[in-house]
């Protein structure tokens, strides 16, 4: 640690339970909102969810069919690249494992795509084995549009821009392909524990 | 291999920590200060981008926050404008503790969507709330520095006239540049005889300031509630969602 900011002591407000706040992050109690454009509002009767791309047979669910899938309630810590972390957030949604159950594919990557045109890329192995959900509930309530409702991707072990709001589908890919922020200087993978915020981190 | 090929297309440049030296401090309002920094090897930026600032205490404790760049790409030195949040950890240090000659660790530029370059054209509708005006003013500074005549309008929501950041500069621009129009919305306190807007920015205001046929690009920056209202309102008056770019500021980030 060579550089010291003259006169800086820091407030060291609640640093949280050890081992739960990644480097460079601080805790918040509220739930900040970040997005690049207006909040899309797709009526539920026009909403659907698809699994497509490098798959033998694309899958498709209407809102009702999607809500009829087995759901899980999970409690997770989330970490935004803009430095805030929020502990013990409670989500309800469908595990990505459930959506990929009958999907035949040799793909290794996935791009989540969304209303409003947002995309984000992830290795397939990061959204399977109980690591990712399509969440439609937050804190016991339907997910607010400004937080990504009706449904968003939830991948809590990566920076939160990977948890794409207003998600409408997963496109499976043989090769990795940068999403929206990943094309604009943000890290391809985004592990908060390795502080992979930007290109080259 | 595949991954390397994709990354190769992306001009992968690491964003490294650098030291800037405080060259000038400008009191903008009672709570807001501009830090003008000498940064050797600054890679350059586009108007609208931000930097990460990192503070390190003697025992190694660190805190990081993001701040919008206020200076134009054409300016010689890098400026950030910081609003002091009473409950904040980083902003009180930047706004009260730093003196000329102090060093500050930062890295950037960061962000590539909430940006405007002259080549993107216009007209430019800028809607800012509080310190959310900072990246918008960087765009106006870039517009003037490059001699562009792209029409631009700024709607600036502040609590009172005393809370308006860069007021002298903005008023001067509005007087001297007939392609630039400035409207203030003062939400809490208005001077006697105030003829500007005296309420929060709403759809009626946006209807008045929108360019004919909702041409061009709109940039909206401010606290979450403000951005949600304005972005929805712009879509309501006829802007396509892809014409509206947003960035949010809030107490979180202190």
Q: Can you name the CATH architecture of chain A?
A: Alpha-Beta Complex
- Biggest sheet overview of chain B: 6 strands, antiparallel
Radius of gyration of chain A: 18 Å
Unreliably modeled segments of chain B: 1-9
Q: Based on the structure, what is the oligomeric state of the protein chains?
A: heterodimer
- What is the strand arrangement across the widest sheet of chain B? 4-3-6-1-2-5
Instruction: State which percent range the strand residues of chain A make up.
Output: 25-35%
Report the top-level CATH class of chain A: Alpha Beta
- Largest interface between protein chains, with number of residues from each side: A-B, 48 and 53 residues
Q: Please name the fourth-level CATH homologous superfamily of chain A.
A: Oxidoreductase, molybdopterin-binding domain
How many helices of chain A does DSSP assign?
2
Walkthrough of the structure:
The complex is a heterodimer of chains A (201) and B (254). With 201 residues, chain A is mostly beta strands. Chain A has 2 helices and 11 strands; from the N terminus they run βββαββαββββββ. In chain A, the strands form 2 sheets. In chain A, strands 1, 4, 5, 8, 9 and 10 form a 6-stranded mixed β-sheet that branches. The two termini of chain A are 18 Å apart. Chain B folds into 2 domains: 18-110, Beta Barrel (Elongation Factor Tu (Ef-tu), domain 3), CATH 2.40.30.10; 118-248, Rossmann fold. Chain B is 22% helix and 30% strand. In chain B, the strands form 2 sheets. Chain B has a 6-stranded antiparallel β-sheet with strand order 4-3-6-1-2-5. In chain B, strand 3 (50-56) and strand 4 (62-68) form a beta hairpin. Residues 1-9 of chain B have low confidence and may be disordered. Classes of the chains: A mainly beta (201), B alpha/beta (254). Chains A and B meet through loops of A and helix 1, strand 3, strand 4, strand 6 and helix 6 of B.
